[in-house]
Design a protein that fits this description.
By secondary structure, the protein is mainly alpha-helical. It is built from seven helices and no strands.
Length: 249
Amino acid sequence: MEKSEPVVSDREDRSSTPAFRQREEASSIELFYDLFFVANLTSFTTVHAIDDSESLYAAITSYIGFFAILWFTWLQVVLYDIRFGVDSLFERLAKLIHFGVMVTFAVVGTRFNPSMPHETYITMRQLSLVLVVSRLVLICQYISAMLWVRKHPNITAPIKVHVIALAVGAALCLGFFFTFTATSSGQAYIVWYVIIVMEALAIFISSSRWEAVSFANTNLNERCGLLTLIILGEGIIVLTKNLPSFFPP
């Protein structure tokens, strides 16, 4: 990454509205994080391969559901990195925890099956805790970034919105942790998708209203484009491996 200090560019000395340092390219550690995302999908696809013993509908809904949770978690980390990411001990520790979250997703994802709530409620609880941990780390990162511009209320305002949105999301995920039991209906997981979408909307809307924290001149398009290419490549590999099963001799 770039310099470890400060978070904002040199324009802070010449303007009442500081500008955060923009980076045109993703760092190596960020690209490595993207690979963790793809590895999760590959692992999930391998374990939950569609065969005669599993209904097509259940397999597709399970894949889409897990992909949505994984992608929105990845997106939240990216939205922070492309605007406020710096090279410091704190940021490296935070990134290490985010890597740990991805590893946990890989472990829990092998047992993710919303169509069998009574058998996978422990997995659902684990996913709730993983989502909580991910949000708490992001909250700490945003608060750290906010401290750099604490003298500029017009800049701290949108970051506070980010923090509040993530805090509400973490609190709701923690609350729904207790709804997953062996006797529950298992439909509480739908709230996860409402939460992650509302978090993303809150951050995108607040960022669009304050230019200093907008996504203009960031590498968001590059990160999304690279991830899409990697996912497509992995998808082609999985498809070619499974082609013989669709055309038995």
